[in-house]
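Hey, I'm writing a tutorial for new members on how sequence and structure tokens pair up, and I'd like a real worked example in the thread rather than a made-up one. If someone can provide the structure for the chain below, I'll link this post from the tutorial.
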Amino acid sequence: MTQNAEWTEEASDDFIALGEYFVPDRKMQTDVVTSMMAPHDPASKFEVLDLCCGQGYLSEAILRTFPGATVVGLDGSRTMLRQAVQDLKPYGDRFRTELFDIGQSAWRRRENPPLAIVSSLAVHHLDGHQKRTLYRDLHDLLAPGGRMVIADIIDPVGPLGHELGRRMWDEAVRERSLRLAGDLSAYESFHEMKWSNFEYPDPMDQPSPLPDQLDWLRDIGFVEVDVYWMRAGHAIFGGAKPAVAG
């Protein structure tokens, strides 16, 4: 999170315990990200940055899918990073972590450019200007031909889209609570914690409209800009940095 965001270590504990219920189609989202992040031989060696990696759910999927990949998991929560290190210990030195602030810029300058940059449920904590600056810096940071894939909460355009996102998210959590827990305990926690920014607006959440973000990516210089998946006010989108000619 950014230094201005009021994310706490308690919130990290809550998400570790309940993220499986609160994130719509979590496994499908992970499959979409890994499918779009690296269109090359899965066994080749390359580095991935996972921005706000949390407890390592997406990082683990990348490491499992791409045997030649190494992942740097960056997060602003020490609780999340400790959990990620513990859960991904079987991958050895293919996974390492860094404590960071996504809104700051120092971490965006790196000696070895990554071939892929991914992020899940983090960029919406930045305002529009900060998002544009982040996307520009990530474009510059990527290796030629590299790809950026963002899975995040978006700001639906218009009240009908907003209500649809709210309702679909609510229904998704209710269904998963019944299916995975056998009761409505997780669904009740979802509302007790006021997790949905569509139903309980929170200044920490600053999602931007998806059309705006796609325009920003094109203007910055990303190619193959596209939306890969969308449901319940969540979307996965991204693009590629052009490869060096020849």
